[in-house]
Design brief:
six-stranded mixed sheet; binds 1-O-pyrophosphono-5-O-phosphono-alpha-D-ribofuranose; 11 strands; five-stranded mixed sheet
C-alpha cells in the first residue's frame, strides 16, 4: 500500500498558492477545487491527504504529528519555535517583519519603548538583541491603531505591500526579518515516511526553481 502523507495547508490566499504549487509538483487532488466547506481531501493514488487549517495552527498539527508535513509562515516559526524540521523555503507569501511608527517618531532611549504586537517573542528577541528596554502590549489584530491612539510608540507587524501602514499614516522604521512560507515536517514522520517526504521535497524544490 502506498504511504499516505498528511499535509496541513494554511487556509486562505496563501494556501491557494501553496496548493497550486503542490499540484504542479505532481501531488494533485482535484476534489479540493470542487468544495469549499469541506476541510479534508485525499488522493489515494498520489498518496496525499490535505487538510485546511488556520495558518497559525499549521505548526501545531505538524509538531504533534497530526500532519506529517505542512506549510507555515516563517513568522509563526520564529514566534512559536515549534519542534519541527524546516525543509524548504517555498518563496511564496513573501513579506517582512518590521517596526513601524508615525513618520515623526524619534526613539528617546531614556524612556522605555512601548511596543504593540501580536508577535511578542519576535519583538522581545529583536529588542534584546539591540539592548533596548521595552514594554510589550500584546494585541490580536488591527495593530496599526495602537500608535495612532497613543497606546504604543511603535508596532512590530507584518508588512507586505505597505498599504495598511500607508492608509494609517505609519511608516517602516526598521526591518527585523524577511518572511516567506516554509515547508515543515514532523520529526518522527520525517524518519518513518522519509521516502515519501524526500520525493515531495525534491518535486517542490524543482517548482520553486521554476518560479524564480
Ligand atoms: C497583516 C498585517 C497587516 C497587513 C499588512 O494582516 O497584520 O495588517 O497584513 O499587509 P500590507 O502591507 O499588504 O497592507 P493580515 O491581513 O494577515 O491579518 P491580521 O489583521 O489578522 O493580522
Amino acid at each position: 500500500m502506498k504511504t499516505m502523507l498528511n499535509v496541513a495547508l494554511p487556509k486562505g490566499r496563501l494556501g491557494e498558492k501553496v496548493y497550486a504549487m503542490f499540484e504542479k509538483a505532481g501531488f494533485e487532488c482535484p476534489s479540493i477545487r470542487e468544495n469549499n466547506r469541506k476541510l479534508i481531501f485525499e488522493n489515494e493514488e498520489k498518496g496525499v491527504r490535505y487538510f485546511w487549517v488556520k495558518p497559525s495552527d499549521v505548526a501545531i498539527y505538524v509538531e504533534r504529528g497530526a500532519a506529517d508535513v505542512g506549510v507555515a509562515g516563517k513568522d509563526i516559526l520564529l514566534e512559536y519555535q515549534p519542534a519541527v524540521y524546516e525543509l524548504l523555503d517555498l518563496n511564496l507569501g513573501k513579506c517582512r517583519m518590521a517596526v513601524a511608527a508615525k513618520a515623526d517618531f524619534r526613539d528617546d532611549p531614556r524612556r522605555t519603548l512601548k511596543v504593540a504586537t501580536k508577535f511578542v517573542n519576535i519583538a522581545r528577541n529583536y529588542y534584546t538583541s539591540i539592548g533596548r528596554d521595552i514594554d510589550i502590549i500584546r494585541l490580536n489584530g488591527s495593530i496599526e491603531i495602537a500608535p495612532i491612539l497613543g497606546l504604543s510608540d511603535v508596532i512590530v507587524d507584518i508588512v507586505e505591500t505597505g498599504t495598511t501602514l500607508k492608509e494609517n499614516n505609519l511608516v517602516v522604521h526598521e526591518t527585523i526579518v524577511p518572511i516567506s512560507a516554509r515547508l515543515i515536517a514532523n520529526r518522527a514522520g520525517f524518519a518513518f515516511k522519509n521516502e515519501a517526504i524526500e520525493t515531495l521535497l525534491r518535486e517542490l524544490a524543482a517548482q520553486t526553481e521554476v518560479a524564480v
